[in-house]
Specification:
alpha/beta, binds S-adenosyl-L-homocysteine, 14 strands, about 350 residues, DNA polymerase, domain 1, two-stranded parallel ribbon, elongated, 2 domains, TIM Barrel
Length: about 350
C-alpha cells in the first residue's frame, strides 16, 4: 500500500462513484460522500454520519481530506478580517473578508507566494512555493462565508481573486475552484459575483475568452506606458502592453464583458498628464472601468501615493472620455490586510 494517501477532493463525482462500484458498493454512495465533501464541507470522514462505519474506515484507508485550517484570525477596526490559512503541508496563505453595509467580499489567494516581481507588492517579496489546489481555494471561500454568517449575519456575496499569487499562472486550479464555487454541488454562487484579477498574462486572457468563462476580469494595469510599467512590473518586458491590449480586445470580442482596470497613482511614477492620456488611449476599445486604488505602504519608501490633485486629474480625464472611474479607499490597513500587503506577517 502506498504511504501517501490520495486527496479525496481531487476526485470528480464520477471517479468517486466508480470507486464504490469497483468495491461492489452502490454508485449512489459516491454521491453521498461527494455531498459531504463539497456542499457540507466535511473536515473528517467521521462527520459523514449517513455513511456506515465500515465504509468510513475504507475511505480513511485510501484517502485524506486536506482541509485548510484557519490558524489565526485578525480583525481590523473597520471590520475587515484577515485569516492566516494553514495548508496540509504547513505552508501558509492569507485571505481577507471585506464587509460593507450591503455586501461581504472574500479576497482569496491562488498561490503560496508569487512568481511575479511587482515592485510595490509585499507578496512579491515571498518566493512562489506552489500553486494552491482547487479545494484549498474553495476552502478559503467557505471559511469566509462562515465568518460572514457568524459576524455579519449574512452569507458571502462576492469573491475577488486579489490575494496572494497570480491566478492566471494557476489557471486550471482556479477554474476548477470557481466551477465548484458556482455549481449546485458546491456553493451555488453566481459567476457574476466573482472577479479574477490578473497582472495581465496575454495568453491566459485569450484562454479565458476561449473557455467562455462567466466571471469578471480585472487587470492590474498601473501604467499604460511600457517603459513606466516595466519599471514597476518588470515582467511587462516579456508581455508588453501591445500584447496585453490585443488579448483584452480578443476577450471583449468573445465575451462582451466589461473590463476593470486596477490602478494606483504614485508620486513621480505615473502622475503626469501623459500617463492619464496613455490610459485613456489604452482602454478606449471596450467599455471599461478604472478603479483608482489607494497605495498601501509595504514598509519601504520607494513608493508614495500621488497628491490628491493627480487623482482628481485622472478622475476628470477618464470621465471626460466616458470611462467609469471609482476612487477606492483601502480596507484593513491596520492589520496588513489591504491590497498588496499580504505577506504572512503575524499580528
Ligand atoms: N496577481 C494579481 C492579484 C493579486 S494583487 C494581480 O496582479 O492582479 C491584487 C491587487 O493589489 C492588484 O491590482 C495589485 O496591483 C494591487 N496591489 C499590489 N500591491 C499594492 C499596494 N502596495 N498598494 C495597493 N495596491 C496594491
Amino acid at each position: 500500500m502506498q504511504d501517501t494517501k490520495k486527496d479525496i477532493r481531487a476526485l470528480t463525482r464520477e471517479q468517486l462513484r466508480a470507486f464504490f462500484v469497483d468495491r461492489g458498493d452502490k454508485a449512489f454512495r459516491g454521491n453521498q460522500v461527494y455531498e459531504w465533501l463539497w456542499s457540507k464541507s466535511a473536515h473528517t470522514f467521521e462527520e459523514m454520519t449517513n455513511i456506515s462505519l465500515e465504509t468510513r474506515e475504507i475511505l480513511e484507508a485510501h484517502f485524506v481530506i486536506n482541509h485548510i485550517r484557519v490558524d489565526q484570525m485578525q480583525r481590523s477596526n473597520d471590520g475587515t478580517i484577515k485569516n492566516a490559512v494553514r495548508l496540509h503541508d504547513g505552508l501558509v496563505v492569507e485571505s481577507v473578508l471585506i464587509p460593507t453595509p450591503s455586501r461581504t467580499t472574500a479576497c482569496v489567494s491562488s498561490q503560496v507566494g508569487c512568481s511575479l516581481d511587482c515592485k510595490f507588492c509585499a507578496t512579491a517579496k515571498l518566493k512562489r512555493m506552489r500553486n494552491l489546489n482547487p479545494d484549498e481555494i474553495y476552502d478559503q471561500v467557505v471559511a469566509i462565508d462562515n465568518e460572514s454568517r457568524l459576524y455579519f449575519d449574512r452569507p458571502l456575496s462576492n469573491i475577488v481573486f486579489m490575494g496572494m499569487g497570480e491566478p492566471l499562472m494557476n489557471y486550471n486550479n482556479v477554474i476548477k475552484a470557481i466551477d465548484k464555487i458556482t455549481s449546485k454541488d458546491g456553493l451555488g454562487m453566481s459567476p457574476r459575483r466573482i472577479t479574477v484579477s490578473t497582472s495581465g498574462v496575454p495568453k491566459m486572457i485569450r484562454k479565458l475568452a476561449d473557455d467562455e468563462v462567466k466571471f469578471k476580469l480585472a487587470v492590474s494595469l498601473h501604467s499604460a506606458i511600457d517603459e513606466v510599467r516595466t519599471s514597476i512590473m518588470p515582467f511587462n518586458e516579456h508581455f508588453p502592453l501591445s500584447e496585453l491590449r490585443a488579448a483584452l480586445e480578443y476577450w471583449y470580442e468573445k465575451t462582451k464583458s466589461k473590463i476593470t482596470y486596477e490602478y494606483v497613482v504614485w508620486k513621480g511614477v505615473n502622475d503626469r498628464i501623459e500617463d492619464v492620456r496613455a490610459l485613456v488611449q489604452f482602454c478606449r476599445f471596450a467599455p471599461s472601468k478604472v478603479n483608482l486604488i489607494e497605495y498601501n505602504p509595504i514598509g519601504d519608501e520607494q513608493f508614495r501615493q500621488a497628491d490628491f490633485a493627480a487623482i482628481q486629474m485622472y478622475q476628470r480625464e477618464l470621465e471626460r472620455n466616458g470611462i467609469t472611474v471609482t476612487v477606492r479607499r483601502s480596507r484593513g490597513k491596520d492589520i496588513d490586510a489591504a491590497c498588496g500587503q499580504l505577506a504572512n506577517k503575524k499580528g
